[in-house]
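Let's practice the habit of predicting before peeking. Look at the sequence and jot down your guess about where helices and strands might fall. Then scroll down.
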Amino acid sequence: MTAPMLLSVENLRISFATSRGQLIAVDDLSFAVGAGECVAIVGESGSGKSVTAMSILGLTAFSGGRIDAGAIRFRRRDGTGCDLTQLSDKAMQQVRGDEIAMIFQEPMTSLNPVFTVGEQIAEVIRQHRRVDAAEAARKAVDLLRRVRIPEPERRFAQYPHELSGGMRQRVVIAMALACEPRLLIADEPTTALDVTIQAQILDLLRELAAESEMAVLFITHDMGVVAEIADRVVVMHHGRKVEENTTAALFAAPSESYTKRLLAAVPRLGSMKPFAGPRRFGDETADAERASPPEPLLAVRDLVTRFPVHKGAFKRHVANVHAVDGVSFTLGKGETLSLVGESGCGKSTTGRSILRLVEPSSGTVELEGENVLALGRDRLRARRRDMQIIFQDPYAALDPRLTAFEQVAEPLVIHGVESGSALRDRVVSLVQRVGLSEEQLERYPHEFSGGQRQRLCIARALTLSPKIIIADEPVSALDVSIQAQVVNLMIELQEELGLSYLFISHDMAVVERMSHRVAVMCLGRIVEIGPRASVFGDPRHDYTRTLLSAVPNPDPARRRTAALPASQLPSPIHPIGHAFEAPAYDRVGPDHFVLMN
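Done guessing? Here is the structure:
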């Protein structure tokens, strides 16, 4: 490698003291990062990726970790070298934020909700540079402009909750870049973002690194992102490095079985072209003869959901958020319809409106011919047995005070379906069906991995034998191998039980694998809907094409060379009484429709 080494991690060992003894989180890890180079550390949750990143900034001690052995050598701005593990707290504070900066995974937890975003960026500048408040504010506005935030002067005075997820992540990047660090550590910075925002942020990081010869240590489990941005890859498993190579060589010919499994589990956009319907990972058998169209189960017509905007000391109702605006579709028995689109497009609100977890403003939702929106409280409660939901975050969806048995049994108890030994037998059969054991039923949620928790949520959704499951981003927070297991499980359950899924996601490759039909949403409306092969193979709406072009390809040879143009969707907030023209669609193929207005 021609680039001089900026960071060298040598034989690093990190441990945590637990109630069950010493836990070795990182064991004998060595790698290096050169100036201007992007090195990706990949692996599943618990592999030691984030712990390694935190140790470079001296942050492991705050979470109970201890560096037992090894060195972390860093070449400073003045050309001198140092071992970061031996620096005093005061010296480390000078390095942190100035010469080494970090972007954390969840921008909302990285920002202080009581200060404006501009104040938070300016504070970093004043901490490390001798400038007055006015100069710091001017530099903060320049940084917001640099990370392509529109109207930076106005955004400077806004609070984190007033910005979208993509905007907040850009603010965190601006904070990290405030003092022009020599090394930027990015810990899963795009995991929770939509594909278009993710593509823009990857383009931004690549551009900024090229401008200032900044090195980037990129931590992720998304192999598409790795192929898009990394020069070299370090693969970790159970705290140890199992393989290291250039990105092109590692993707072309991985040498370790774990790396091969990791790459095999990556959903690839376009891999479903030979198949008509959903397909489990590893299943390459030919499609059977296409059956006749499925019998309709759910019919949504002209669904409208709006949220009031209040302003002033008296909380006057001044406007409405048009979250869902005239959405119509049908879902057949045993069919999967996927709703895709960027954050704020109305996907999740549509799913929650169907279940009446939020009350729609107008429209009809018919389940087997019965209008769910017209039901009284008792009838709605009974009807909800046929409609269940799986949420994005399995940990937040489970009660930390209840055991796994109590979580799964709760719907059966509430509806009075089972009791006594029959209840136990039913719960055991459900958890075994989703790949968990009876012995695990006495554990609490924190004792399960992310994938196991999502399996628990699926088991709970199945307890009342529903006809429809609304799956709201059920795999977006999971590692690729766990993601593949959950996708396979959902497809198997559909085949076995005849379930219908409304699958809500922004991961286009997973959507392609799961779906019979796809509906693309933008600003509360469906802009294109049709069979999966038609929408992915022949997209007709400009927005659909933009979404598909932004998906990172897990193949370094097909890395995007042109940056995706930065774009901002119009605001969904409109004055009271504002109404759009009813959506009109053009039929462009069999069961394939595109919005005309």
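How did you do? The CA atoms of residues 196 and 550 lie 5 Å apart.
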